[in-house]
Design a protein that fits this description.
The complex is a heterodimer. Chain A contains six helices and ten strands, in the order ββββαββαβαααβαββ. By secondary structure, chain A is α/β, with parallel strands linked by helices. In chain A, strands 1, 2, 3, 5 and 6 form a five-stranded antiparallel β-sheet that branches. The longest helix of chain A has 17 residues, at 168-184. Chain A is globular. The model of chain A has no long low-confidence stretch (mean pLDDT 88). By secondary structure, chain B is α+β, with helices and mostly antiparallel strands. Chain B folds into two domains: 3-46 and 258-398, no CATH class; 55-249, no CATH class. Chain B contains 13 helices and 13 strands. Chain B has helices at 3-13, 15-50, 63-70, 83-90, 117-122, 193-201, 210-216, 232-243, 251-294, 296-304, 309-345, 363-388, 392-398; strands spanning 55-59, 81-82, 95-107, 110-115, 127-130, 138-141, 152-153, 156-157, 172-178, 188-192, 219-220, 222-227, 246-249. In chain B, a hairpin with a 2-residue loop joins strand 3 (95-107) and strand 4. Chain B starts with a helix and ends with a helix. The chains are: A alpha/beta, B alpha+beta. Chain A binds chain B through residues 41-42, 44-46, 48, 50-51, 70-71, 74-75, 77-79, 83, 85-94, 98, 101-103, 105-108, 148, 160, and chain B through 1-2, 9-10, 12-13, 297-298, 300-309, 311, 392-393, 395-397, 399-400.
Chain lengths: 216, 401
């Protein structure tokens, strides 16, 4: 479904950052494992069509993601990808429900209120759907972010360090959620992490070292 | 959720900053609006008062003084002219009609104008109450004089409320009160020419002005002349100035000259108003910029969810335009109120501008609104472009800032 080959990324005043090839199929649960600073988030950005690589190509169903027009790429991402980035939080000005609906609004897909209701119930957020994010616990915010990521039934669910800030019990809960939601929407799951506690959840492990291509 | 509703929710999430922005914008716009409305109103008022009066003829002196005293009732007259000069002028082929005015007395500062019924018709006066003067010493009161039908009073010599001798010989009696016209007529007491002349023909005993009063008896202060053809507006004054001991002036020419020399002050005030608007635009820019830096991650979320850079720019621009629009609308409303208050409370503006006219929609409002929206859009350009260029991958890689 998704192939990323020969990917390397240009950096300011530094050599190219190169990445191992990556291939994701339906039902795959892939973990990108490596220490902080090795470029996990950068690789996720490349896969998500947010960062044009210096070399290599990202193909989604044989379509070159970076050959699309920027607008088409944004639409493609909105429809086919669900992203749970560590730093991309909920919009504080919107209610929980509006935050989740945002996924449909921004991707330009139809907004199914039933589906939002279902997700809210399933993730235990139904009671708080009209609260602002500030009034929610960290765990609730994270669940809302997952709900938002899976609203459009994406084919690929990307998550960046979803568990590293959590204790063992909560890490388990979040991983259960991610795996269950991915399975339910038949999405492939790609998680970038340095958290080795959750390795058992994955079918494919890709190790990233801070590998740097020589100046030559 | 679209760019518009996202911008709205962003505004609502920062109520204090947004309110400050709107307040600053409205203060600048209000000042500018009040200024423009008042100066436009004064100019219109001058024109309205002078409408249909092509040439003013009076005793030798300053032409501006003649126009101010006899048309706007704002200065002392240049002197009196003989009634026979009016009769002579009536035979001039360039002249269509003449309305004489005799000034010199007042009641509580409201000038008593001796004239002919045509004077009232000229201003399109309508009666709120009562009717036209018929007998000698009957008078009709303007809307702002506070007089009522049936009131009687003694005229006071002079044109100001303070001082002057009271003409005890005969009291005036109000036979009618006029509706507001938005002209000087509102502040005048109008009577028959003969009443003013009659009053001065029988001087009070021991009146030091007695000799002068006798003179007044067959004199008028000025003649308001309507010409037959527009060209005569220029040629008639030349003719009169060259061939008689009177002077003639064109109100529109004199007022244009006056407003030209007063224009500096108005330009200065307008510059201050525009400066205010520019300042509030800067404030809007700084508010948008700070809102933007606080919302970087929000914008990142939108991009990841499939929004295009244009959508991000759109939300920021919409925020700027909405804040500026709200400020402008509030400012325009405030400006109207300010102009109304000033027109209602500054007595020298009475009769020149009608306060109520400032409570109506004005063509300027449209221009100001457009200006406000465009200014908002301009203030939003830099933040909007910066929003569109948000480097999502960089944002993600750096982690929570």
């Amino acid at each position: 479904m998704l192939d990323a080959r020969n990917i390397s990324v240009a950096r300011k005043n530094a050599p190219l950052l190169t990445f191992p090839d990556l291939s994701v199929e339906f039902d795959d649960r892939v973990v990108l494992l490596g220490p902080s600073g090795c470029g996990k988030t950068t690789l996720l950005s490349v896969i998500a069509g947010l960062l044009r690589p210096a070399t290599g190509a990202v193909n989604f169903h044989v379509r070159d993601v970076y050959a699309m027009s920027p607008r088409a790429r944004d639409k493609w991402r909105g429809k086919n990808l669900g992203c749970v980035f560590q730093t991309l939080h909920l919009l504080p000005a919107l209610t929980l429900r509006q935050n989740i609906a945002l996924a449909a609004d921004m991707a330009g897909t139809a907004r199914y209120e039933d589906r939002i209701d279902q997700l809210l119930v399933k993730l235990g957020l139904a009671e708080k759907s009209h609260r602002k994010p500030d009034a929610l616990s960290q765990g609730e915010q994270q669940r809302a972010a997952i709900a938002r990521a899976v609203l459009n039934k994406p084919q690929l669910l990307l998550a960046d360090e979803p568990t590293s800030a959590l204790d063992d019990a909560n890490a388990e809960v979040v991983m259960d959620l991610l795996v269950a939601q991915a399975a339910e929407t038949k999405a492939a799951l790609v998680v970038a992490t340095h958290d080795t506690r959750i390795l058992s959840r994955f079918t494919k492990i890709i190790r990233l070292d801070a590998r740097v291509k020589g100046a030559a | 959720m679209n760019a518009l509703s996202l911008a709205l929710s962003s505004i609502r999430s920062r109520p204090l900053q947004s309110a400050l922005c709107v307040t600053a914008a409205s203060a600048g716009v209000a000042l500018l609006a009040a200024l423009l409305l008042l100066s436009q109103g004064v100019q219109d008022g001058f024109l309205r008062n002078a409408q249909g009066i092509d040439v003013v003829v009076g005793a030798k002196g300053s032409p501006l003084q003649l126009v101010l005293s006899s048309v706007y009732h704002a200065d002392v007259p240049t002197g009196n002219i003989d009634i026979r000069d009016m009769e002579k002028l009536q035979h001039n082929p360039k002249v269509k009609s003449i309305i004489p005015v005799a000034l010199g007395d007042n009641y509580r500062g409201f000038r008593i104008v001796g004239t002919m019924p045509e004077y009232l018709a000229h201003y399109g006066a309508q009666y709120e109450d009562g009717k036209m003067f018929a007998a000698p010493f009957d008078a009709v009161a303007g809307a702002l004089t506070g007089l009522k039908t049936g009131d009687s009073f003694a005229g006071v010599h002079g044109l100001a409320a303070d001082g002057g001798d009271v003409h005890h010989f005969h009291d005036y009696k109000i036979t009618g009160v006029l509706k507001p016209t938005g002209t000087v007529l509102d502040r005048l007491i109008v009577t028959a020419l003969g009443s003013v002349q009659e009053l001065h023909r029988h001087p009070d005993i021991g009146d030091p002005d007695a000799a002068q009063d006798m003179e007044v008896a067959h004199q008028v202060t000025a003649l308001l002349v309507k010409v037959k053809r527009p060209i005569a507006t220029m040629s008639l004054p030349r003719e009169i100035n060259a061939t008689s001991n009177m002077i003639a002036a064109s109100p529109s020419y004199e007022m244009a000259r006056l407003s030209q020399s007063l224009g500096f002050g108005r330009d200065l005030l307008a510059a201050v108003g525009i400066g205010f608007v520019a300042l509030s635009a800067l404030m809007l820019l700084s508010s948008l910029a700070s809102s933007l830096s606080a919302r970087r991650y929000d914008l990142g979320v939108l991009r990841v969810l499939g929004a295009s850079p244009e959508t991000l720019a759109g939300t920021v621009a919409a925020e700027g335009v909405m804040l500026a629009g709200a400020g402008t609308v509030a400012g325009i409303a405030l400006g109207h109120l300010l102009a109304y208050e000033m027109a209602a409370n500054i007595s020298s503006l009475g009769g020149v501008v009608a306060p109520a006219s400032f409570l109506q929609f004005h063509m300027l409002d449209g221009c100001l609104l457009l200006m406000g929206l465009v200014t908002g859009l301009f203030a939003a350009v830099v933040p909007a472009v910066s929003a569109a260029r948000t480097d999502i991958a960089g944002l993600l890689a750096r982690g929570r800032a």
